[in-house]
């Protein structure tokens, strides 16, 4: 159930972030989304004994993280010129994928 709800929240967050980035740009929207990711991580760490809190902060984190992913192409475009854009976008996606893989592999250890 959580996975399904998380996917729906993520999809809705991506759609909303796309509109917000188009309207206000990444300079206003990305810091808010990153702040929400941090709040979600802090909340999950502080309320490990509460299933409802873990659900809420987990869904907040999923939505916020996927919102950041939508804005990355706009951020890369604004930080690069035509000659470096392809490489920077590729490196951004590589870093994102390595983060996902590393989190998946290391998440159960410790």
Which stretches are low in confidence, meaning pLDDT under 50 for 5 or more residues running? none
Order of helices and strands: HHHH
**Distance N to C terminus:** 26 Å
Largest sheet: none
Count of helical regions? 4
User: Based on helices, strands and strand pairing, what is the structural class?
Assistant: mainly alpha
Tell me the helix content.
over 70%
Number of E-type strands: 0
Strand content is under 5%
Description:
- This protein is an all-alpha fold and 110 residues long.
- Helices cover 86% and strands 0% of the residues.
- It has 4 helices and no strands.
- The chain has helices spanning 2-24, 26-46, 51-79, 85-106.
- Helix 2 (26-46) packs antiparallel against helix 3 (51-79).
- It is globular, with a radius of gyration of 15 Å.
- It starts with a helix and ends with a helix.
- The model has no long low-confidence stretch (mean pLDDT 91).
């Amino acid at each position: 159930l959580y996975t399904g709800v998380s996917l729906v929240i993520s999809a809705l967050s991506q759609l909303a972030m796309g509109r917000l980035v188009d309207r206000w740009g990444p300079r206003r929207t990305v810091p808010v989304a990153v702040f929400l990711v941090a709040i979600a991580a802090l909340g999950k760490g502080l309320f490990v004994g509460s299933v409802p809190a873990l659900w809420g902060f987990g869904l907040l984190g999923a939505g916020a993280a996927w919102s950041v992913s939508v804005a990355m192409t706009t951020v890369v475009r604004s930080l690069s010129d035509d000659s470096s854009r392809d490489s920077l976008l590729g490196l951004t996606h590589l870093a994102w994928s390595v983060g996902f893989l590393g989190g998946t592999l290391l998440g159960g250890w410790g």
